[in-house]
Amino acid sequence: xxxxxxxxxxxxxxxxxxxxxxxxxxxxxxxxxxxxxxxxxxxxxxxxxxxxxxxxxxxxxxxxxxxxxxxxxxxxxxxxxxxxxxxxxxxxxxxxxxxxxxxxxxxxxxxxxxxxxxxxxxxxxxxxxxxxxxxxxxxxxxxxxxxxxxxxxxxxxxxxxxxxxxxxxxxxxxxxxxxxxxxxxxxxxxxxxxxxxxxxxxxxxxxxxxxxxxxxxxxxxxxxxxxxxxxxxxxxxxxxxxxxxxxxxxxxxxxxxxxxxxxxxxxxxxxxxxxxxxxxxxxxxxxxxxxxxxxxxxxxxxxxxxxxxxxxxxxxxxxxxxxxxxxxxxxxxxxxxxxxxxxxxxxxxxxxxxxxxxxxxxxxxxxxxxxxxxxxxxxxxxxxxxxxxxxxxxxxxxxxxxxxxxxxxxxxxxxxxxxxxxxxxxxxxxxxxxxxxxxxxxxxxxxxxxxxxxxxxxxxxxxxxxxxxxxxxxxxxxxxxxxxxxxxxxxxxxxxxxxxxxxxxxxxxxxxxxxxxxxxxxxxxxxxxxxxxxxxx
Amino acid sequence: xxxxxxxxxxxxxxxxxxxxxxxxxxxxxxxxxxxxxxxxxxxxxxxxxxxxxxxxxxxxxxxxxxxxxxxxxxxxxxxxxxxxxxxxxxxxxxxxxxxxxxxxxxxxxxxxxxxxxxxxxxxxxxxxxxxxxxxxxxxxxxxxxxxxxxxxxxxxxxxxxxxxxxxxxxxxxxxxxxxxxxxxxxxxxxxxxxxxxxxxxxxxxxxxxxxxxxxxxxxxxxxxxxxxxxxxxxxxxxxxxxxxxxxxxxxxxxxxxxxxxxxxxxxxxxxxxxxxxxxxxxxxxxxxxxxxxxxxxxxxxxxxxxxxxxxxxxxxxxxxxxxxxxxxxxxxxxxxxxxxxxxxxxxxxxxxxxxxxxxxxxxxxxxxxxxxxxxxxxxxxxxxxxxxxxxxxxxxxxxxxxxxxxxxxxxxxxxxxxxxxxxxxxxxxxxxxxxxxxxxxxxxxxxxxxxxxxxxxxxxxxxxxxxxxxxxxxxxxxxxxxxxxxxxxxxxxxxxxxxxxxxxxxxxxxxxxxxxxxxxxxxxxxxxxxxxxxxxxxxxxxxxxxxxxxxxxxxxxxxxxxxxxxxxxxxxx
Amino acid sequence: xxxxxxxxxxxxxxxxxxxxxxxxxxxxxxxxxxxxxxxxxxxxxxxxxxxxxxxxxxxxxxxxxxxxxxxxxxxxxxxxxxxxxxxxxxxxxxxxxxxxxxxxxxxxxxxxxxxxxxxxxxxxxxxxxxxxxxxxxxxxxxxxxxxxxxxxxxxxxxxxxxxxxxxxxxxxxxxxxxxxxxxxxxxxxxxxxxxxxxxxxxxxxxxxxxxxxxxxxxxxxxxxxxxxxxxxxxxxxxxxxxxxxxxxxxxxxxxxxxxxxxxxxxxxxxxxxxxxxxxxxxxxxxxxxxxxxxxxxxxxxxxxxxxxxxxxxxxxxxxxxxxxxxxxxxxxxxxxxxxxxxxxxxxxxxx
Lengths: 537, 573, 351
Hints:
The complex is a heterotrimer of chains A (about 525), B (about 575) and C (about 350). Chain A is an alpha/beta fold. Chain A has 20 helices and 21 strands. Chain A has three domains: about 190 residues, 3-Layer(aba) Sandwich (Dimethylsulfoxide Reductase, domain 2); about 190 residues, Rossmann fold; about 110 residues, Barwin-like endoglucanases. In chain A, the strands form six sheets. A six-stranded mixed beta sheet of chain A has the order 17-19-18-21-16-20. Chain A has a five-stranded parallel beta sheet with strand order 3-2-1-5-6, sandwiched between helices. By secondary structure, chain B is of the alpha/beta class. In chain B, a hairpin with a 5-residue loop joins strand 10 and strand 11. The longest helix of chain B has 18 residues. Helix content of chain C is about 25%, strand content about 20%. In chain C, the strands form six sheets. Chain C has a five-stranded mixed beta sheet, sandwiched between helices. Chain C has a three-stranded antiparallel beta sheet with strand order 6-7-10. In chain C, strands 11-12-13 form a three-stranded antiparallel beta sheet. The longest helix of chain C has 19 residues. Chain C is elongated, with a radius of gyration of 27 Å. The chains are: A alpha/beta (about 525), B alpha/beta (about 575), C alpha+beta (about 350). Chains in contact: A-C, B-C. At the B-C interface, helix 3, helix 4, helix 21, helix 22 and helix 23 of B face helix 2 and strand 8 of C. Strand 9 of chain A pairs parallel with strand 16 of chain C, so a sheet runs across the interface.
């Protein structure tokens, strides 16, 4: 988010799903697409099988998408900047960069050029483990493509260098002139159904809806007028910072809606202690989650099947949800609960249905201004959509970046916060599996999904052999934060030296092991790399 | 595990074809041979990975073709007894019964010592040299009970005896069978000495359009069975085409009663190669395929040797030919099924349009012609269309190899001008053995003719059509009065059901139901309703299937029922 | 262009097939193997029609009409052909509708009804039920399979999971998972596309067995609650029992065109799960007790106001959610910014 916003002026996925098979080449880096975004992966796989798109996969695991790839490269966790800089090094060296695009639509190119000059294939091989030859093939295929798209997910962002990684992807796509056209773009794949919408709606400490900045006098004035109250112009805290402050007693109350940080947060022990120190914790959810159990008050909400409203997907398509079933017991819509509390605190809200909220929202949210429930219809529409005549915007940055010129940034490679050493000799990385979702509060209610995927740790054949462990045997995985004992899943998809664990399972919560080291800008934790050791459990 | 040697062979096959998936069938066969004639699931998975197809696809291909022995234990000697119609007429059932008794197993079983597996198979294209048993890859023809005993004794000692055998032939035209009696005629030097490759030399000096025009003018019609004008077919290639053009020779000779193509390929392979090279010149093709039925393994070897020789001699400078072996599927004689098979898929016909000339092999323009058709081209180019038309009547120009089998004294292949009388051919074949009851004159899939209808029959397209049958592949099966037509109908029907590709419903399920109904009738359990079912099925299926092979049983079975109804009714309770 | 179907003038667009033109004009031509998404296969032969000037029957699913074409869909010859095809299918499979999950949604049932047929007339085959229940979410009943090939095409060309194909040939030809594995042991990821596209009861959703019949459910559009792709869902709801009995992907939706993953299609048990929260809870002495909304809201509002007053608005933090709607995220941040007066709002997007 922060990275793309700095480069382009907007943090959203730049392109649309429909244009996905219009690329000549697609680079997938840090996205286990078929596990985490299976239906989008299906379209990519089809495009590859039909010979429309050549796929390049760069991932520490030999993910399924690699089976459909023209080139697959395995990098050491946390070395994405080095690999991307190495690609750009070769692209510039061979003259495959888009000179016209750089000239007309970007700034800061010289700094980038100077920085990537150091990243020779030999150096990149040493740092990342990607063979120089493979890097050359990747750079050529990507650099010479007429149109190439780039897809990433948490494998790029969940690092202490997350913003660096993201800015490197933006650098690469501007360098090759792949921005602002169908089939190109930098495409972060959003991991949750309405994470895009939550951001769009101002669910962030530094912006109002539609990324209008807190502290900007004109913006402050607009919202004060619109909402009729005096507003704080002080940028708020991110969640990870807030947890630290709760831990040391500065924060007093949390109101958590529909999230379960007790499974999703890094270094769970720390998170639990922080929440326990709060004077007041309200949790609003559909289940008594691990987090809700720590609350002083729990408020029952409705599930997506029980309500009307909109979600904004990864490609910025706003789509309608309709009510299918009645909510159980006295559960209420989240907005109804907000309204009850707000009015109790002296405000005067009078919403009677979701559409009224939407219509209010779009009046202060320029990118949603032209959307109405009626217009959304069956297919939904892409924001930005400034007025009711506008058809929506499937591809961002055509002709001009949101910020004007695209901004290159010279990004030096930095090691992850915690590297394997003698005591903890292996890389530990986390992620999702196809059959489960996030903290499991929803998927784990379906027995069939649990039968298909329970807690486990993925090990390479070599690492399993070294500790004499067979498939299904118990393994004890330890980091400086703690230990978990769980079943081994031994696979050739895991390279030697890397251990992978899905984070869905509270009883074997991978985040007991992850490190609470944050990206300095985005405050995102480094879930994708830390050091671990394994023993027979 | 597949050996490194076979693996490297497969890898080189993958580069030989325009698309590597085409190597799937030959790869499976190579592995099967290495694994003592058996193919396990693990083998299939390994081949799938190597060739780059899904496990399901490889398994689907391996179980589609009968020559792959998937997960069934086949003995050291696989005795495959042809019992299709020509073989049955020649006494194959007796041979099979004898083997069952001698080995103490039923067809489909393997002896306890793992030595012999006995299998009843469909037409092996040995119609004039039946009964025939294919032992592993080797044909043993003209068998008698005594010869079978000697064969088994020899095999028990671990020796494959010599399989040379004589067959009858004759030619009044001396074109297609010109080199039939000539020693070493498969060799390039001999072929050239007898005037070979002069037509190609001439063709290379001609404009491609001129070659096509000459072939069009000759009136040559496809010799595979459908009889579509060859020149017209060639004219269907799209203009301004930028894709490669593929030339495919259909050598999947599988129509029961037909064994003419093998005479050309086995004894005069260069005639076919020359014909294809001329066609390639005419059509602008750089790569051709000979799709040969898998059972003709040794003939495929002959062709490959001849192609190598021709290449070395500079005859194939701008044209290459790949010999692609089938693996046991009659339906691959249908051109789109054949194309699918070359692409490494299950041999299932495609919907038309698009026709192969527009979108065939690897979605490129493709011309598919029969062996005999290509073999006729050198004569036309060298001597001219006018000379060609001197053979036969106007609408059925040219010479033709007639394969005669069944109840005649000298079954064999005879080259005559089109329009020759049925009686003259029978006389050439030594006359009828016994009293003539009926004959099927165009391969199994045409309407049977009674002795009465055969009296004044001329063997050309129009004359056959006038009698309500078709010249087809010119494979003539002669039936004497000791045979029951319902029994022959059932045997024929089992063939069609066995060869159904399973793609479209009427053929897939209809062929099976027709077999069941006929079985009931022949076993004496049938009722009027069963006969009515047969008639409903064969009556409705005509024109309803995806491809011509699907409906192929309709015409012959319907004609048998109509013309010999009393025999069927006599069996009904 | 103008064509006539059964004597009726019909407008056909270029590129349309006869079947599509007829459908647009409200004329039913039965199909079994054809599906918009996988295209014409020409396999079932049940869509045959007669076209003036063409001797053979033609498949409406594949033939594109030409100007002035005269088409007949219900001649004796067409009906005889269709009846034979359906008769063969009914005779060779276990097409018993009573317990079949597909009842009311079965395309073979529809064609048989259109032709006035109930049972197969060929009594030669001994048809036994052949089932494969090894998969968590999809039931396979091979004896109901009509070999239309839709599932194979969809598995390979739509969802591109490449698990399915056909094995053997002739009447023995049937679908195969990998190299002949039970579905549950194959590499299938259970996306359920095959079950969604199956025209008969051969591949069905296990979770829906014994639940409300198709005609007793109502279809409601929604969006998948899981990853960010935003697949459009059709929730099939039993209104009487207030439960979701099936989820299908919305065909034609720009995000997923009918496709879903195993979670999106089958992971809906959470909605009606007994563990759902049904009343507000207030913790007392370390234990939760049920409370009324009034009590809970009063407590929350009071406590938030109290802390704000004592420690300042910035001592409060709100976590909004990637799982609730835009409208609710909007009201939440508005609540924090206006009622509390802080910009301490964040969400779990980074996690």
